[in-house]
Write a structure and sequence with these properties.
Length: 279
């Protein structure tokens, strides 16, 4: 049996949200699927927030362009929120969206896991009212970073909150046809984890370091799709053989997904947004 034989196709009627880039959409076979939780994991500065902002705007595109013709909400725990960058990106969507794109993005700060759970319980009453089809949480790891001690009792309480949050998100995603995107941080892998494998990835590297998504196996079991972004430094020599500057190349990889194989693509961040690179 081949690995691809284990893939499960999504129902043909499952709507998907475009990343507003043909190459990235091709990587994900159409984009971010509704009714599921998609995690984007990366170290700081690689592009997970950039992609999140792009999705907040892409959700408003008409369905004929791969959007959801809907509003979106961003629950953020990373401060400050990049309002200036969101406004800059919105300028490139105004020709495709009748109204001001920023009028249909709702921003709410998060302060703790319990705060997130409380907000999710109140979302049911406003999702239909505001025509919300995308929820972005940036980032889940920041909420749990200093909230719990490293004791069996605290770790058990943390896992319980993981499952409550994920259960609520999955319930809302399926009930309202939402796309749910959650960003996560990564941490350095100090020692080998033996035979432990999550998805189809033995280990992940970024900026020359071995890393893994934060929050461990309990959280990994809460998401349907995990995308990993990483960065590689490449030295660019100048003419005449002189040592040049360092160039950062960025990549996105499908770590696990029920309907996608292990695949990856290079991307760049431009003023207009995030775009795949065909090499």
């Amino acid at each position: 049996m081949k690995p691809e034989d284990l893939l499960h196709s999504l129902p043909t009627q499952t709507p998907k949200l475009t990343l507003n880039c043909p190459l990235l959409d091709r990587l994900l076979r159409g984009g971010i699927p509704c009714g599921t939780i998609t995690e984007i994991a990366a170290e700081s500065g690689v592009g997970k927030t950039q992609i999140s902002l792009q999705l907040l705007l892409a959700a408003q595109l008409p369905t004929s362009c791969g959007g959801l013709s809907a509003s979106s909400i961003c629950l953020h725990s990373e401060f400050p929120f990049p309002f200036r960058r969101l406004h800059q990106l919105s300028l490139f969507y105004q020709s495709h969206i009748p109204n001001n794109p920023l009028d249909h993005i709702f921003i709410q700060p998060l302060h703790s896991p319990d705060h997130l759970l409380d907000l999710l319980s109140r979302l049911d009453s406003i999702v239909s009212q505001l025509n919300i089809r995308l929820i972005v949480i940036d980032s889940i790891a920041a909420l749990f970073r200093s909230e719990f001690d490293n004791t069996p009792l605290e770790l058990k309480r943390r896992s319980s909150l993981f499952f409550k949050i994920a259960s609520k998100l999955k319930s809302q995603a399926q009930k309202f046809g939402l796309a749910v995107v959650v960003t996560n941080q990564v941490m350095d892998v100090i020692e080998s984890s033996g035979n432990l494998r999550i998805g189809n990835s033995g280990f992940l590297c970024s900026s020359g370091r071995r890393v893994c998504p934060a929050l461990g196996l309990s959280w990994a079991n809460c998401v349907n799709i995990r995308l990993f972004l990483w960065r590689e430094e490449e030295r660019v020599d100048e003419e005449g053989g002189d040592i040049g500057s360092m160039l950062a190349r960025r990549f996105i990889r499908v770590v696990f997904a029920p309907h996608l194989p292990d695949c990856s693509c290079e991307f760049v961040i431009k003023r207009e947004g995030v775009f795949g690179v065909d090499r």
